[in-house]
C-alpha cells in the first residue's frame, strides 16, 4: 500500500500491491484502516447520501440509455453497470480545475463533471463526434482508441508543471488498455518528468471477451512501480476506498510528488456495449459472485446501519432518478442530425482551398435536387 | 529619408530552420520543442543547436525515445494552450507516432466541433541521397497528405525554411513539416525581416518557362532547377513549381502554369502509387484537360521499399530521368519510345 504522506520518498512508496484497500465490505460494514481512514474522515452523512444518489442516478442513466438503444433511438451504448463506485468515488474527489482524459465508458465521471444529458448521448445517437466542450467541464471528450488518452493526460500534466499550477490531470482507462504501448509510454513520460497525473485504471475484469488474465499475469497495479510510479490497488466497488485512494494520488500530484497509479478492482456487470453478448464468453456464476459485491447495495447497507436511509431520503432519490430518466429521454429525442454541409465544418481552423472546392461542389450538387423539386 | 534595408544573410537550410525556431520560441512563450536528442546535442542534424542553452529545459525538452509519447504528450500540452513543436528524428521513425497523428492530432478539432485546436508542428527530416541505413531515407508525406485535418508542407531553400517553420508554428492547425535532409547544408540568402512571406498554402513558381510545367517539392526542387537549366541549353523552356504545401495543394498555381505550357511533369522521391504525383496529375486532368498537349508524366521513386544505399541512385529521380520525362511530354524520343526511334 501507498503511504498517505505526499512528502514521503517515492522510492519507499513502491511496494507490492497484492493487498486490496477496502473501507466498506460487501455487507456495508465499515472496515477500519489506519492508513486510509483519515483521507475520508471529513465525509459527512450528507455527502455519503449524495454519493449514493449519484450512483443511483448514473445507474438509471445506464438503464434508460440501454432502453433508448433497444428502441432504436441510440446506435450504441456502453453501460458502466457495476462500476459506479469506481467512477463516482474518484470523480467526486476532483477539483473543478483538474482535467479528465477518459475512455468511452466513463459516463458517471462525465455526469460528475457537469456534462448534460443530451451531451452525454450525442455521440451514441450519431449526431456528433463529441458531446461537449472539454473546457466547459474540465474533461476531454472520450478517446475511442484504447489507451491513447493516457498520453494526453500526461502532456496536460506537463503543461500544469510548466504553468506552475497545482491542477492535476486524470487518465481513466481499463484493464485492456494497460496492454497498449501508449499506456506504457505515458508512464515513462510521467515518471521522467514527475508529471502531476493520476492513472486511474478500472480493472473491470473484461476487455470485451478477453479476461484480465490475458492482459496481465500479475496484478495490474504491480506494473507501475517498475516505471518508478507508486501504485494502489483498491476495491473499486467501495466508493469510500476509491475516494481515499484518489485523494491520496491527487494530493501527491498537487504537492510535487508526481504520478500515481490506481487500480480500482471492479466488474463490468453488463455487456461491453449494447452490441455485445457476454453469454458467449462469461460464466453466469461469475456475474452472480460479483452481483453480491454490488457497489450500490453495500453503500445502501452502510447508510442503513448509520441511520441515514430515511424514507424521506429514499423518496427524494427516487424522484431525482425519475427526473433524470425523463430528462435523458427528452434530450435524446431532441438531438437532430446536423445540416448536410456541416460535414465540412471544423476540419481546419482556417480556409483550406481543396476543401472549399469540395464543399462548393457538393452544395451545387445538393442544390440541383432542390431545383428539380421546384 | 533613410531606410534601413534588411540585409539578407547567407545561411544553410539547417541554420535557417534553427533561426526560425529560435525566433518562434523567443516570440511566444507557449511554444515548446519536444524531441529526442534536441537538447544538448542540438538534434542529430543540429537543427535545434544552441536552443537549450538559450531557453532552458522547460522550453527545449529532451524526451524519452517514444514517438507516440512525443506526439501524445504534445496533444495534452495543446489542450493546455501550448504550441508544441515535435521533432521526429528520421522519416522512418514516424510510424510509432502514426496513430496519435492521424487518429488524434488530425481529428481533435473536427471531433470537438472546433472547441479544441491542435497547433502542433511535427518536424520530419525526410528523403534520401545521404547514403544512410534503412529507415533513414524515406518519404512518407503522402500518408499525411491523405489525412484530413493535417496541413503538410515541405521547404526547399533556406528562405522558405525560415518562413515556413514560423508560419507552421503560428498555424492553429497541425502541420507536418518535411525537411529535405540532404539539403540541410545547401546555402542561400535569408531575409529574417521579410514583412510578408508567401502564405503557408501557396506554391511558388521558382523558374518561369513556356514549354513544360515541372512540379516538385523539397529535395528535388534543386534537381528540377538544374534540369530546367540543362533543358534550356536544348531550347526547351521549363517552368518549375515548388509546391511548398503538399496539403492542401495549390492547384490554382499549377493549373495556371499548365494552361500556359500544356505539358506536365511531376517528380518526387516518394513511391509512385497513391503519391502526390497521382493527385496532381489527376487534378490537372480534371481541371484543364482541354489545355493538355500530352499525357502528364510522373518521375518518382519506384514502388519498392527504400533500397540499400548503393542502389539509391537508381531509386531517386535525378536530372536525367526528369529530362527523359520532359522528352516524353514533348513527344520527343525517350526511354519509352526507344532512343533509336525516329522523331
UniProtKB/TrEMBL annotation, chain A:
Residues 54-322 form the Dehydrogenase E1 component domain. GO terms for molecular function: magnesium ion binding; oxidoreductase activity, acting on the aldehyde or oxo group of donors, disulfide as acceptor. It holds the Pfam family E1_dh. SUPFAM superfamilies: Thiamin diphosphate-binding fold (THDP-binding) (SSF52518). One of its GO terms (biological process) is branched-chain amino acid catabolic process. Keywords: Oxidoreductase, Pyruvate, Thiamine pyrophosphate. Signal peptide: none annotated. The keyword Oxidoreductase applies. The keyword Nucleus does not apply. Its cofactor is thiamine diphosphate. This is Pyruvate dehydrogenase (Acetyl-transferring) E1 component subunit alpha. The lineage of its organism: Bacteria, Bacillati, Actinomycetota, Actinomycetes, Micrococcales. The gene is pdhA.
From TrEMBL, chain B:
Residues 11-186 form the Transketolase-like pyrimidine-binding domain. SMART domains: Transket_pyr. Its cofactor is thiamine diphosphate. SUPFAM superfamilies: Thiamin diphosphate-binding fold (THDP-binding), TK C-terminal domain-like. Pfam families: Transket_pyr, Transketolase_C. The keyword Nucleus does not apply. One of its GO terms (molecular function) is oxidoreductase activity. Keywords: Oxidoreductase, Thiamine pyrophosphate. It comes from the Bacteria. InterPro entries: THDP-binding, Transketo_C/PFOR_II, Transketolase-like_Pyr-bd, Transketolase_C. This is Alpha-ketoacid dehydrogenase subunit beta. It comes from Lacisediminihabitans profunda.
